[in-house]
Design brief:
The protein has about 150 residues and is α/β, with parallel strands linked by helices. It has six helices and seven strands. Helix 1 runs parallel beside helix 6.
Length: about 150
């Protein structure tokens, strides 16, 4: 299975570097960084990423829409983590077999780009039991990345 995670405009460097570590642990093939997401080379990456940025394949592109369209043309299923009316629990999604998966995450302040949602094959959520509606992006990414395995 080919697994990619696309990060769109994630503000926190620590979250991005933590996702690099999650991607390594969950055997993701690649990270695509888009928008204003911080990206290597940076002197402060290795402290949090523990050098995962040196062996995880990654690319930076300004426009996430163009990259998602390219992935769809290459038969990737696009799964966006977002609280929407038609979202399904992440635990139900990965009972099916997929050959190519791209998981899309973005920053917690501004909600997902509506064009990304339109291009998504499915929207997925992590059910919350407390008062908050969402988890930290690196935590949510880790949960869903491990569920894909």
């Amino acid at each position: 299975m080919s697994k990619i995670i696309l990060l769109d405009s994630i503000r926190s460097m620590q979250n991005v570097w933590a996702i690099f570590r999650n991607a390594d642990g969950a055997w993701f093939n690649k990270i695509i960084l888009t928008g204003f997401t911080p990206h290597p080379p940076r002197n402060d990456i290795s402290k949090t990423a523990l050098w995962a940025e040196t062996w995880i394949n990654w690319e930076y592109f300004l426009n996430p829409i163009e990259e998602i369209k390219k992935l769809k043309k290459s038969w990737y299923k696009i799964f966006s983590v977002e609280l929407t009316k038609d979202a399904i629990y992440y635990t139900k999604l990965f009972k099916e077999e997929y050959k190519k998966v791209c998981l899309v995450m973005w920053n917690e302040i501004s909600w997902v780009n509506k064009n990304i949602l339109r291009l998504s094959d499915k929207k997925i959520i992590i059910p919350m039991k407390g008062k908050k509606e969402s988890l930290n992006v690196s935590v949510a990414a880790g949960i869903v990345m491990y569920a894909i395995n």
